[in-house]
Design a protein that fits this description.
Elements (H helix, E strand, L loop, with lengths): L1 H57 L6 H16 L3 H22 L3 H5 L1 H36 L3 H7 L13 H4 L8
Helix pairs in contact: 1-2, 1-5, 2-3
Amino acid sequence: MMFLGVFLAIAILGVLYLVGIYNVLIRLRNRAKNAWSQIDVQLKRRHDLIPNLVKTAKGYMAHERETLENITKARSQAMGAGSVREKSKAEGELSGAMSKFFLVVENYPDLKANQNFLALQEELTSTENKIAFSRQAYNDQVLFFNNKIQMFPSNIVAQSFNFKTEEFFAIEDKQERKVPKVNFS
C-alpha cells in the first residue's frame, strides 16, 4: 500500500513537472509573438512615413525618379512580405533603398532645409531606432524560446506537443552589415 502511495505521488509530481514545462513553452512562444507584433507596429509606421517623405522630395528631385521608384517598389514588397524570413529580406532591401535616397538628398540643399522634409526625416530616424530595438527584443525572445525547445528535458515536451522553433529577424542586406564610412573632408 505504501509503495502505491509513493508511486502515485511521484506520478503526480511528474505530471505537474510536465505541465510546468508546457506552460513555460507557451509563455515563451507568446512572448516571441508579442515581440514580433511590436516589430510589425514599427514597420507599419515606417511604411506609412515613406510615402510622405517621397512626396515631399518629389518636387525637388525631378531628375531622381528612379531612386524614388525604387523606394516605392521596395516599400510595396516589404508590406507584402509574409514570413519572418521574407520580411527580413524585404526590409533589408527597403533599408538599402532608403540609404541611397538619403545619399541623393545630399545633392539638394533646398530639400535638406525644407521643414516638412526634416520633420519626416527625424520621424523616420526615430522609427528606425525603434525597429532596431524591437528586432533585438524579438530575437532575444526567439532565442529563449528556441533554447527551451531544444534543451533537455523540455525538448521532450516540445516534441510531444509539436512546438517548432521560430525564425530570427536577421539582416539580409549585405549593405546593412557594412560599417558606414565617415568623411569630414
